[in-house]
Amino acid sequence: MSSPANSPDFPLPARTATASWTLPVTTALALVLAIAVSFIGSGALGGTPIQQAAGGYLSADATLLAPAGPAFSIWSVIYAGLAVYGIFQLTPAGRRSAWAARLRMPALLSALLNAAWIAVVQLGWLGVSVAVIFALVACLAWMLSIMMAGTPGSRTEYWIMWLTFGIYLGWVCVASIANTAAWLLSLGVGEGASWTPGFAVVLLVAAAGIGLGITAYSGRIFTAVAIAWGLAWIGASRLAGSNQSELVGYAGLGCAALLLLGSLAIAWRQRGVTAP
Q1: The whole model's pTM is what?
Q2: DSSP states of 189-218 as a string?
């Protein structure tokens, strides 16, 4: 696993020729919008919570792939990271870093997509929400590729970006599966069918495979940890909630455990290979 910036394994980071305020301020405003819309969408101001919006299809027991309620506490970590990132990228170091400059546009776009997803769910447009959340996954994957291709300007920049957007990508991967399941249920697809638990297990295994693949690509476990978190809470929801399925429940917990152990092994092996 590669080391953070300023270690012997890293070259000196590039700096941008100018330190314009325009895009950093626009990005900060987009992040404020995303956080504010999330706060409103949580029902904190009297609105409809996401789990109750869109006919309740996104509730913890609506589908076999819906995580239990506590799983969504990960959003607090993500939004805290986005707030820290929004402030950091306004600092002189953040504005002059070439690595940060390349990441700023997809970060801005991810904030707008986040706000858009909450808005369309509140409007009950589940089909549109699926398109938006997969666009968000693609945007965060784009950020991952940029982070891998460049060099952070400092350890602080490294940890802010990887902790925030690595975890963000992992959670949204899980959320995209749950969101798609909710939309299909709203269309009546698979409702009460005998094949749905088996298909849910296939998707859980696929999600774990994606997590392992991202770890192998990046050498970092942030995304895999977030995916494992979501899979574990899907398993817990199926074993303890009203929409129970032992097959899906144990599969979720098993996939989460295997993903964590596998990702740790992959990251450790890559760290050993790249160590001087």
Answers
A1: 0.90
A2: TTTT-TTHHHHHHHHHHHHHHHHHHHHHHH
